[in-house]
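hey so i finally got around to running the thing on that chain from the lab meeting. sorry it took forever, my laptop kept dying and i had to restart like 3 times. anyway pasting the input first so we r on the same page abt which one it is
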Amino acid sequence: MNTHPYLRSFLAGIFVPTLVMPVMLAAFIVVRVVLQVPIPIERGLVFPMALVPTIWGLWNMLWMETHLSMHQSLGLHGAVLPAVLAPAGALTASGLGILSLGPHGVTWFQSCQVPYALIAPLFLAALAGYYLVWKYIVGFLNRVLGIA
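ok and heres what got predicted. didnt touch it at all, straight out
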């Protein structure tokens, strides 16, 4: 009997972003509509909402395929994902005119300036958060689904 390990791995991977993305959407709607922040957030929102769960599922499938040969922990594998997503997202946002790089920081939507000194600790916090989420939540789901 075929137990479809790749399908189970994909479903375990998409679990967290599928739960988090609607909460982020609700927060963005409150910021944009209720608080009337004049930043066109929706331009940069739809694309990540469509891709991030799929990327997480594919990333978990990649771990399932390679963990026996590489012996890499799931948490460390998950912590590498922001290092892939951040440059790809910045490149895409820059190409779409949502993000522009300056000498002292980045500018989102031609109105919100974020200094590089703030981006570095936020990126490190993202690495730590991804490590914990992948180690404990995705790892738990992988064990429940019989993948790990």
